[in-house]
Amino acid sequence: MLELLREEFRRRLGVAPRFAARAPGRVNLIGEHTDYNEGLVLPCAIDRETLVLASPRTDRRCRVFSLEMEAEAAFDLDRLARRGDWVDYVQAPLFAVEEQGLRAPGLDLGIASRVPRESGLSSSAALGVAVAAAADAAAGRPRGPLAWARAAHRGESHFVGVGCGIMDPFASALGRADHALRIDCRSQQVEPIAFGGAEARLLIAQSGVRRALARGGYRERVAECAAALEAARSAGVAPADARALRDLGPSDLPALERVLEPRLLRRVRHVVGENQRVDAFCAALARGDLAAAGKLLQQGMASLRDDYEVSTPELDLLCDLADAEPGSFGSRVTGAGFGGCTLHLVAADRAAAVADRISEGFAVRFDRNPPILTARVSDGARVLSP
Ligand code: GLA
User: Are 212 and 118 in contact (CB under 8 A)?
Assistant: First the structure.
């Protein structure tokens, strides 16, 4: 991919690339819809990545092309403005990098990606992190993965205007091979957890239901969590200074039942249970207890389907099909839901068979085969030698 991108860079932009950065997509093992509630998540970076080549300019212009989009664009760093297309995801991290005080030179940029788009594997975070890393390198100040993660998050939330949490850019920037990252989204502390992967594989099945259609549903869930917190505070169930649903625990649920409308209660029940499942999952991994880890995935799935209501018939079926197979430890929706992917924890020696059976069973009902990939848990973003 690198060689092809290099050639295209020279051909389209007429200069040689001087810097290269890569950033992977991610899959979340457990801890879903908890990041914007300042809770716990457990994602890992995967072996599908976005590459960005860059060459600094002497003015403040940027020219960019994307192999996947088969498109080119140009903009000015002093006049960044949303356009409503893919270029916003290139401008966004540059907006944040500038805001962080790094006056970057203009850039020529070339982008290629193997992270499937709109499928819940964080192609936008991978792009944001890789662009931030390339911009840093081109400005001669490589500040490291945490700064890239923050720039990508700030850009996506404040420039593009998607109110997402920190999980995706943190996973893409800070991922570590063979480790999941336990991220406390309140303190932003990141702890690598060994993913003793020898006997297990992660399968990711793409439902083919495009995540782009889901923005409205995601925003609605964010707003429902804020409304639930507000109601819990005014009823005196949550402390007056509670900042997020993170401040509520299982012992608050009986009191919440009395003050929240049923829909908001279900949302809170998911978040409270999901935070607990993250730590239980880490403990199961530490014991090497894949059966227990799989059970937690299934409980998470039930909660996402029934309480958080972000599953779809396609996602339900993918999980049911996998979990009916010997060698499947557990499955669930991963990412925001409303489409996108499912994650399946399966025994290594059964991975191919389980993938086949998922594919066949899905085709019977939906008349198409879902792309299924086996993910390797990989390192996070880095600047490559030019
Ligand atoms: C999307 C968002 C993340 C997170 C997940 C749900 O992937 O980008 O920040 O909220 O949904 O866990």
Answer: yes
**How far apart are the two ends of the chain, measured CA to CA in Å?**
15
DSSP string, 264-285: HHHHHHHHHHHHHHHHHHHHHH
CA distances from 66 to 74, 267, 325 (A): 12, 39, 40
pTM to 2 decimal places? 0.95
Tell me if residue 81 falls in helix, strand or coil.
coil
Helix crossing, 290-302 with 262-287: angle to 10°? 170
For the question of residue 168 being annotated catalytic, the response is yes
Q: Which two tokens stand for residue 167?
A: 């999980």
Per-residue pLDDT tens, the chain, 386 aa: give them.
889 999 999 999 999 999 999 999 999 999 999 999 999 999 999 999 999 999 999 999 999 999 999 999 999 999 999 999 999 999 999 999 999 887 778 999 999 999 988 888 999 999 999 999 999 999 888 789 999 999 999 999 999 987 789 999 999 999 999 999 999 999 999 999 998 767 899 999 999 987 654 578 999 999 999 999 999 999 999 999 999 999 999 999 999 999 999 999 999 999 999 999 999 999 999 999 999 999 999 999 999 999 999 999 999 999 999 999 999 999 999 999 999 999 999 999 999 999 999 999 999 999 999 999 999 999 999 999 76
Residues in the chain: 386
Reduced to 3 states (helix: H, G, I; strand: E, B; else coil), residue 117 is coil
**314, 209 in Cβ contact below 8 A?**
yes
Cα 161 to averaged position of ligand 1 atoms, centre (Å): 14
35, 108, 136, 168: the catalytic one is 168
Contact 54, 19 (CB under 8 A): yes
Ligand 1 pocket: which residues have CB below 6 Å?
A: 32-33, 35-36, 164-165, 167-168, 335-336
Q: Shortest CA distance to 235 belongs to which of 273, 264, 266?
A: 264
